[in-house]
Amino acid sequence: MAKKTPARPNVKVVIDGNQISVPEGTLVVDAAKLIGTQIPVYCSHPKLDPAGLCRICLVEIEKMPKLQIACATRVTEGMVVHTSTARVAEARRGVLEFLLLNHPLDCPICDKGGECDLQDYTMSYGAGASRLTEPKLHKPKRVDLGPTIVLDEERCILCRRCTRFDDEIAQERNLIVAERGHKSLISTRDGGGYRSYFSGNTTEICPVGALTSKAYRFRSRPWDLGRADSVCTQCSVGCNFRIDTRFGHVMRTFTRENPEVDDGWLCDRGRYTFNYMYSPARLRQPLVRRDGEHRPASFDEALAYAAERLGPAAAAGKVGVIGGGRLSDEEAFALQKFARDVLGTNNVDYRTHIQRFASPARFGASLTDIDDADLVLVFGTFTPEQAPVLDLRLRRAVARRGAKLMHIGPYKPDYPVAVQHVEYPPGAIAELMEQLADTVHHGREESGDGFVADIAQQLVDAEKIVAIHNGRNVAGAASLERLMETLARYDHQVGILVVGAMGNARGAEAAGCVPNLGPGYAAVQGTPGMTTTQMLAAAADGKLDALIVVGANPALTGADGTLARAAFERVGFLMAVDLVMTETASHADVVFAAASFAEKQGHTTNLEGRRQAFAQAVEPPVGVYTDSQILASLATALGKPNAVRADADELFVDLLAAEASAAASRPKDAPLPRPSIAEAPSSTADQVDATHRRLTICPIPHLYAGGGAAAHDPGLAEMRPKPFAVFSSADASRIGVVAGERVRLTGPGGTIEVEARVGDQPPVGVALVLADMPEAPENRLLEETGFGWATVEKVAQAREASA
Ligand code: SF4
Ligand code: SF4
Ligand code: FES
């Protein structure tokens, strides 16, 4: 659905004697690349606007008396450029001498050594010796620039790539150049720490060793690193990165630009989440619960115990399998095969959050569709927290092209760019979608509701529209599709993206980890199975004898945490497969230790439906196996040795074959069938009680929240938020709480204690509660709808009352 942009006419230019034809306006530095000539640059970066600050890129252009900077000069018809004359060489030597005037020349201990442009260009174009006889100016070294970065001011060449990234790409304007002249320093606007979800990118684009990452400082030299091409699985964007390793350890991750997915950027959650692999909390062997305690067991012992308990439950048809959204495509395929072919049940479901589906049934969009969209509608999802690198595209579209961004949901997220927020109560978005579809279909006059007509008019005025939602509201999604269909009929370009609650939600759905659909969205044989909610409810009622949870933690992330915990306490046998002891695994009778993403190979499918391969970077610890190896071994222990393959390549071949067969039997262009959903109990979410202390609870995501690996990753520790709830000032004064106080929230499933914040985001009667924090699981307050209610009281008062 890409919009056509008019092509620029080509012009002929001659660079170093080679004539080429390039679009008019191409920068000389880019035109030179086309003939293989690399003009040195520092301040220039392909993703940033030309700045012309460092002068290292000087070239000679005929008919121009002075040397010109190649990074900011655009080609014109007949231009003749010389990039390596004696004049150019002398100018570069002068620029380098200037840049090195006060440089500490500490390459032997600098992390950038071996991949530093200053080092490289000095070797290629520098004078070889300094003429400086005066002492050098000394600036601060080891400046703590925030949770992720250390700044060495002496190494900084003031190219401003970092400040320009922060300004032009992140649109956050945290970083500035403070002071003047030779005293200039990189600093933050408010003098505090540099806190950005994208801070790690500045360490990569800094052309020297001035910005280094705390996670990687002094850990390795570039030439000692092994490299594996991988894909981030921390969210459903699926950014591409490289895993750099040494001595079998992951040292760092590094961008691996894919313009169609990540545009060359990573968020810090994706970049820095790997040290949990080396945390003492990492599971390194199976555990079996005996006499009420988890005790280490051999792999074979754990398999035998699990098989002994699962066999009778499967024979009785009383078993369920939960998970898949955090596995690879191959492993998700293996998991549903294990459920169906080994346990004989369709009770398998990847949905362990509020998400109900991962792929739009129709009108699927790609990430690059955001780049030329006129209007982006975001429904109920919070892209800065849940899909950060997608959010960079949104920011660029709004700030650089003037695209409109409209957010529809219960509260206004923090966007650093202009956003039109349409406040809509929790749980009511389906109704709004329906009204919008009707209004667009029948025309503006038909609507009695002013703001609905206004949104509808904006839709009608836009040529290209991308809608982003969280796959939570099935009725809303159907209405959205109807709206899109109407717009498409009138020649609008439309597309939908579903932001997954787990990194591989879409891959798990496509691989068949849902109760009514097999691989490739084929209808299942026999009766569709139970959804996650239905399995948990059945287990809590004693109607299921065994549950298997693989790479999922519904006790913390499930919409109804009370139900999940009741299920795990009541079910006869619970098996968990995970990386660390999660809130769910802590209830299990057998826990298998699983390999992490860096310790296996496979594919993962991002929110666009793009399947991407990732390579194995390091070996798993001894005693730790991939999920498919565990499932294949368990299948053998259950007497079905060939039912599930352990090998990722073989699984991939089988998955492709199953998908091809499903696609062949589905009518062309037919909408994808939806995974079945459990009937949600009616919500109390809309029953705002503005007179008492009872408030509607709306969970809010945070990039660094989460249990499991995220809670045990030392690289994320400083960034992790403390549990909090935000109240409107009206509610805060009515209840009598002030910001910073501890409050107790009591809902239908229990109580949590959090810090009170007061802000203008929540509507009156709604408390925004940080989601997925093991210290204060907000899902105790929620229902299956994903919303809930709670009464609020100060902790001090509550303690007095109970004393
Ligand atoms: S810290 Fe690095 S990126 Fe920033 S201005 Fe200095 S040299 Fe350039
Ligand atoms: S946006 Fe998502 S996929 Fe990309 S680096 Fe961040 S967490 Fe990983
Ligand atoms: S790269 Fe051209 S002026 Fe800096």
Instruction: Give me the secondary-structure category.
Output: alpha/beta
What small molecules accompany the polymer chains?
iron/sulfur cluster, FE2/S2 (inorganic) cluster
Q: Mean of the pLDDT scores?
A: 92
The total count of helices amounts to 22
Distance between the termini: 64 Å
Would you mind describing this structure in some detail?
By secondary structure, the chain is α/β, with parallel strands linked by helices. The protein is built from 22 helices and 33 strands. The strands form eight sheets. It has a seven-stranded mixed β-sheet, sandwiched between helices. The protein has a six-stranded mixed barrel with strand order 28-32-29-31-30-33. A hairpin with a 6-residue loop joins strand 8 and strand 9. The chain is globular. The chain starts with 9 loop residues before the first strand and ends with a helix. About 1% of the residues have low confidence. The site of FE2/S2 (inorganic) cluster has 12 residues, from loops.
For this entry, give a set of tags.
803 residues; 7-stranded mixed beta sheet; binds iron/sulfur cluster
